Amino acid sequence: MKLVVNGNKVDSKDNVNISELLVEQSVKMPEMVSVEVNGTIIPRVEFDATVLKDNDKIEYLYFMGGGQCKKRPLDNIEKITDVTIRVNRSGPTPRMIKRELREYKFSLEEEGKNSEEVGKLLCTRLKEIREKHPSL
Questions:
Q1: Contacts from 36-43 at CB under 8 Å and sequence distance 24+?
Q2: Reduced to 3 states, what is the DSSP secondary structure of residue 11?
């Protein structure tokens, strides 16, 4: 079966559930990962019961607190878009910001930017988002 995991196409055995996929993929800190399937975050208690289908889009999400954009920005994408960002009903949600930053990162990498340039541009984009939506 074919899956898209964190933007990468991978092969997996048929009828695999989320818990099995985490083992199969040797996911780091599986007890700390949140899993999104086709845009929906699956509660941990449903990992064993959630059987994946061909072409499902899986995202592994790690929510962490703290960190600064200046230090190792590529490693801090999850921290930058952490749940600590307050949601403004008239502005973007943390999930929307995270998705935008992830898509922006991929487009920069496709343009051939090195990791330092990508990190600086991600920090700049986040600052722009915060200036546009001061309640975040």
A1: 36/61, 42/18
A2: strand
The pTM for the full model equals 0.49
| Rounded (10°) angle between helices 94-110 and 115-132 | 150
Within 10 A of 40 (CB to CB), how many other CB atoms are there?
Answer: 8
Whose CA is closest to 56, among 39, 72, 43? Answer: 39
Write down all domains in the chain, each with its CATH number in brackets.
2-61 (3.10.20.30), 73-132 (no CATH)
Beta strands 57-61 and 34-37, pairing class = antiparallel
Low-confidence ranges of the chain (pLDDT < 50): 65-67, 70-89
CA 82 from centre of chain: 10
Largest Cα separation within the chain, whole Å, is 46
